[in-house]
């Protein structure tokens, strides 16, 4: 049996019935990593030794008759911007190349408590800035469906690892689409929960009012399971919502009759590949056949979301990244005085995209430009929120493409930052409004996966998961695997 | 209004980034292209619109004022590029 392509719930069932041991599962996936990661390049740091220790502990607990939970003993991996005590966390940046955090992020603590076996840390765009994982300070990750293409970004390593059978599930972070866009490009399920649903304590900050951690999985059931473990109030994060967490797995029912789904026409605009549109429209038609009421609607300020985002996110980033000054942690490049030390350190430690965003953000916040750029963008953010509020007065959820295209080729957009920014067109408005959204596989174009994005009301992840699950029950897309030339 | 190379230099100083001559030219071009795209926002009248800095309706998030142990000093300093006598060490400031 090929253990590496089983879902977390399938593996969890096998483990609970003690048909396999956690050590055997861990071994199988580490073998898989050995076989394919040379080509996919998803991992920045591997922690096989610790993984085996965790797996042994789970096996021992089961041998004692304990029932350690549905995800116990299932191997997973983390985007390298989540702090892991004693294990280096680089954010794919030269700035943090050798940094070892003294604490675990809350999500890491919760996964450990649920018995997770961690295989390592995954590649990403440096400081989560990018849409292709080409901006990693170390090396680009490749799309398992076509190694000449990008996996998307910035959680490209996380998504590629799940798609290639190198981790059963992974966590990513989503500031403007960084979980959903690569999930779409690599044919897996990726969710950005409502802002505040999952604690950001221990996530290396990029844009604090937009960042959210979420699961990347092979199917919707796994997404519900993982979200259930990581969600919930955390006093260590002042923006964490103090709300009860529903039983997401119990919410998965194939029944969606009568549900009202809005289809915003602005998400099918210029730049959309016709075949991607066809695939997504067919998926929406399928939801209709299943009994949902789908209706075209409008979110009139959609076209302003991208320019507003690229002012708000860099402004927050320029402030958050001020902490990399060569004093407290990370790289230090000496200089003749302290200012020279700061400038040398930051110039050598940050890559071009990070510098570009710091420059953009510093400019937008600087004296004389604040009102014209930053404040204006925050006001436009209000208009975007209002669009969604009006839509959700009428609809239970919205359905759109996740990305306007399939995965593009490595290098194709690397020299043109604006073209790269446009690949997050369909995901960015959701972060601006703080809403939950997920991408799930809904078909193929040119042999490459296409994602359907479902957007929900704030804190209503359960409805999203339910509709995604119902759709998934009628399709086989999530079962297809890339051919990597190995069994 | 396009951003000049002198402004790029000023912003780089504010951001504590040292740019090479090539980077100055590249960032001037790229920031101009991006900012030109941002000008799209001026088409919208936002006179009476409140800004949204944050999506959650948060007001004064408090927790009980209870003393608890912080990170031990040696662990806080463990990642520092230079430390001395239990403190971060930096080049002379004054």
UniProtKB/TrEMBL annotation, chain A:
Class of this enzyme: ligase
Residues annotated as domain Amidase: 24-465
Active-site residues per Swiss-Prot or TrEMBL entry: 79, 154, 178
Presence of the UniProt keyword Thylakoid in the record: no
One GO CC annotation: glutamyl-tRNA(Gln) amidotransferase complex
Cell membrane listed as a keyword: no
GO BP terms: translation
UniProt keyword terms in alphabetical order: ATP-binding, Ligase, Nucleotide-binding, Protein biosynthesis, Transferase
UniProt EC number: 6.3.5.7
GO molecular-function term, one example from the UniProt record: glutaminyl-tRNA synthase (glutamine-hydrolyzing) activity
Catalytic activities: L-glutamyl-tRNA(Gln) + L-glutamine + ATP + H2O = L-glutaminyl-tRNA(Gln) + L-glutamate + ADP + phosphate + H(+)
Subunit record text: Heterotrimer of A, B and C subunits.
Family: Belongs to the amidase family. GatA subfamily.
Protein function: Allows the formation of correctly charged Gln-tRNA(Gln) through the transamidation of misacylated Glu-tRNA(Gln) in organisms which lack glutaminyl-tRNA synthetase. The reaction takes place in the presence of glutamine and ATP through an activated gamma-phospho-Glu-tRNA(Gln).
Protein's name according to its UniProt entry: Glutamyl-tRNA(Gln) amidotransferase subunit A
Natural source organism: Neomoorella glycerini
From TrEMBL, chain B:
GO molecular function, one term: ATP binding
Tree of life domain: Bacteria
InterPro entries listed in its UniProt record: Asp/Glu-ADT_sf_sub_c, GatC
A Pfam family matched in the record: GatC
Membrane among keywords: no
EC numbers on record: 6.3.5.-
Annotated keywords: ATP-binding, Ligase, Nucleotide-binding, Protein biosynthesis, Transferase
GO biological process: glutaminyl-tRNAGln biosynthesis via transamidation; regulation of translational fidelity; translation
Keyword Transferase included in the entry's annotation: yes
Catalytic activity: L-aspartyl-tRNA(Asn) + L-glutamine + ATP + H2O = L-asparaginyl-tRNA(Asn) + L-glutamate + ADP + phosphate + 2 H(+); L-glutamyl-tRNA(Gln) + L-glutamine + ATP + H2O = L-glutaminyl-tRNA(Gln) + L-glutamate + ADP + phosphate + H(+)
Top-level enzyme category: ligase
NCBIfam families named among the record's database cross-references: gatC
Entry-linked HAMAP family: GatC
UniProt similarity note: Belongs to the GatC family.
Assembly notes: Heterotrimer of A, B and C subunits.
Function, in words: Allows the formation of correctly charged Asn-tRNA(Asn) or Gln-tRNA(Gln) through the transamidation of misacylated Asp-tRNA(Asn) or Glu-tRNA(Gln) in organisms which lack either or both of asparaginyl-tRNA or glutaminyl-tRNA synthetases. The reaction takes place in the presence of glutamine and ATP through an activated phospho-Asp-tRNA(Asn) or phospho-Glu-tRNA(Gln).
Name under which the protein is recorded: Aspartyl/glutamyl-tRNA(Asn/Gln) amidotransferase subunit C
Organism: Neomoorella glycerini
Upper lineage: Bacteria, Bacillati, Bacillota, Clostridia, Neomoorellales
């Amino acid at each position: 049996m090929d253990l590496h392509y089983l879902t977390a719930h399938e593996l969890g069932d096998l483990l609970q019935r003690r048909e396999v041991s956690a050590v055997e599962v861990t071994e199988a996936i580490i073998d898989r990593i050995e076989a394919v990661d040379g080509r996919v390049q998803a991992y920045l740091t591997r922690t096989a030794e610790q993984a085996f220790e965790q797996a042994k502990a789970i096996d021992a607990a089961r041998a004692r008759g304990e029932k350690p939970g549905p995800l116990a003993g299932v191997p997973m991996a983390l985007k390298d911007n989540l702090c892991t005590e004693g294990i280096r966390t680089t954010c794919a940046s030269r700035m943090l190349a050798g940094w070892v955090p003294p604490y675990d992020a809350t999500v890491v603590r919760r996964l450990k408590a649920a018995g997770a076996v961690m295989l390592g840390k995954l590649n990403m765009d440096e400081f989560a800035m990018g849409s292709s994982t080409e901006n990693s300070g170390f090396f680009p990750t490749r799309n398992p469906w076509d190694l000449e293409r990008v996996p998307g970004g910035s959680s490209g390593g996380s998504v590629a690892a799940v798609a290639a059978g190198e981790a059963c599930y992974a966590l990513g972070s989503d500031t403007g689409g960084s979980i959903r866009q690569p999930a779409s490009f690599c044919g897996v399920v990726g969710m950005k929960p409502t802002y505040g649903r999952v604690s950001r304590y221990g996530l290396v900050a990029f844009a604090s009012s937009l960042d959210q951690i979420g699961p990347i999985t092979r199917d919707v059931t796994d997404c519900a399971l993982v979200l259930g473990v990581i969600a919930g109030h955390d006093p260590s994060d002042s923006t964490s919502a103090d709300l009860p967490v529903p039983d997401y797995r119990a919410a998965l029912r194939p029944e969606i009759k009568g549900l009202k789904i809005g289809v915003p026409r602005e998400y099918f605009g210029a730049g959309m590949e016709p075949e991607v549109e066809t695939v997504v429209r067919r998926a929406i038609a399928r939801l209709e056949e299943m009994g949902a009421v789908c209706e075209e609607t409008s979110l009139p300020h959609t076209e302003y979301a991208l320019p507003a985002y690229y002012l708000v996110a860099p402004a927050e980033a320029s402030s958050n990244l001020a902490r990399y000054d060569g004093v407290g942690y990370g790289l230090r490049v000496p200089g003749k005085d302290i200012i020279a030390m700061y400038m040398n350190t930051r110039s050598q430690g940050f890559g071009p995209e990070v510098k570009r965003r710091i420059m953009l953000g510093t400019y937008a916040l600087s004296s004389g430009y604040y009102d014209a750029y930053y404040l204006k963008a925050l006001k436009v953010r209000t208009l975007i929120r209002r669009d969604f509020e009006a839509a959700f007065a009428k609809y239970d959820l919205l359905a759109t493409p996740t990305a306007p295209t399939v995965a593009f080729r490595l290098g194709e957009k690397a020299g043109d930052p604006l073209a790269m920014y446009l690949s997050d067109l369909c995901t960015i408005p959701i972060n601006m409004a703080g809403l939950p959204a997920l991408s799930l596989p809904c078909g193929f174009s040119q042999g490459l996966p296409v994602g359907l994005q479902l957007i929900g009301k704030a804190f209503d992840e359960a409805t999203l998961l339910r509709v995604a699950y119902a759709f998934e029950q009628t399709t086989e897309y999530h079962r297809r695997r890339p051919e990597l030339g190995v069994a | 209004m396009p951003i000049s190379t002198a402004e790029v230099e000023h912003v780089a100083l504010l951001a504590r980034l040292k740019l090479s001559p090539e980077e100055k030219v590249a960032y001037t071009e790229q920031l101009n292209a991006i900012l030109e795209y941002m000008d799209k926002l001026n088409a919208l009248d936002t006179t009476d619109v409140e800004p949204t800095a944050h999506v959650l309706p948060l007001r004064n998030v408090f927790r009980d004022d209870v003393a608890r142990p912080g990170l031990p000093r040696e662990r806080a300093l463990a990642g520092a590029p230079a430390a001395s006598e239990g403190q971060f060490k930096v080049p002379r400031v004054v």
